């Protein structure tokens, strides 16, 4: 596969290492200093793009890839208020797009456990639920994209919770997400269900960025030749 790597920071470099190990070619490594590679003439030489940049730049980067009609695998967090715009264009113009707030296999299994636990807890009013995410101090967004995914999964299943809030919450109908920033922390997510008599806590701890990067390359391999909107659930057969 010829890959246009959009974003050559911590994740871009981790993805490059795994893609090369698996025999793929990195055609372009795009960062703020060589954005000319985002032009159609360059991008259309790649089989697909893997995009891990910043909350402010992801939307435009994905549109550029659509202009060049190449599939995009994106993991950038903090821009999801614009996701529907991308989905609409993808549907209207028959493009190819795969987004995941977290590409690791472990977190995608953790998502399924979180959903099952939340469904069971809907009838158990005595339990309150809280979340915590811990990341490195360079992270730009809070709460993490993964924490938002976990929170949305709970909100869809637990009728006594109406919305998530980032920080301390006093209202019973709010789902509190605490964000901690400390180094080194590739990404830890905890969901705690507490009652007066006991707690149930589930935690996923990433030991490095390897799981995210490996999942993104697997998603890129899987998406080749497909058209439409996909998620890691499709890649992992969890649908
Ligand atoms: N979905 C998942 O599994 C995961 C998602 N993430 C998310 O991925 C994103 C990137 O994370 P990370 O690699 O740690 O961040 P870094 O800050 O290390 O890297 C971001 C990179 O994007 C580049 N960049 C900024 N603007 C543009 C632009 N307009 N065009 C092209 N490149 C640009 C930066 O360039 P320069 O160096 O020149 O500033 C830098 O190379 C974040 O949103 C993070 O939350 C992270 C881990 C896993
Ligand atoms: O910025 C990071 O590092 C990470 N971002 C993603 C997120 O916001 O959930 C995934 C992972 O936790 C690491």
UniProtKB/TrEMBL annotation:
Coiled coil: none annotated. This is 4-hydroxy-tetrahydrodipicolinate reductase. Homotetramer. It comes from the Bacteria. Gene3D superfamilies: Dihydrodipicolinate Reductase, domain 2 (3.30.360.10), NAD(P)-binding Rossmann-like Domain (3.40.50.720). The active site is at residues 135, 139. The lineage of its organism: Bacteria, Pseudomonadati, Bacteroidota, Chitinophagia, Chitinophagales. Keywords: Amino-acid biosynthesis, Cytoplasm, Diaminopimelate biosynthesis, Lysine biosynthesis, NAD, NADP, Oxidoreductase. NAD(+) binds at residues 39, 75-77, 100-103. It is an enzyme of class 1 (oxidoreductase). Residues 106-236 form the Dihydrodipicolinate reductase C-terminal domain. (S)-2,3,4,5-tetrahydrodipicolinate binds at residues 136, 145-146. The gene is dapB. Catalyzes the conversion of 4-hydroxy-tetrahydrodipicolinate (HTPA) to tetrahydrodipicolinate. Its EC number is 1.17.1.8. Residues 1-103 form the Dihydrodipicolinate reductase N-terminal domain. Its main location: cytoplasm. InterPro entries: DapB_C (IPR022663), DapB_N (IPR000846), DHDPR_bac (IPR023940), NAD(P)-bd_dom_sf (IPR036291). It is found in: Cytoplasm. NADP(+) binds at residue 40. It catalyses: (S)-2,3,4,5-tetrahydrodipicolinate + NAD(+) + H2O = (2S,4S)-4-hydroxy-2,3,4,5-tetrahydrodipicolinate + NADH + H(+); (S)-2,3,4,5-tetrahydrodipicolinate + NADP(+) + H2O = (2S,4S)-4-hydroxy-2,3,4,5-tetrahydrodipicolinate + NADPH + H(+). Pathway: Amino-acid biosynthesis; L-lysine biosynthesis via DAP pathway; (S)-tetrahydrodipicolinate from L-aspartate: step 4/4. It comes from Compostibacter hankyongensis. Belongs to the DapB family.
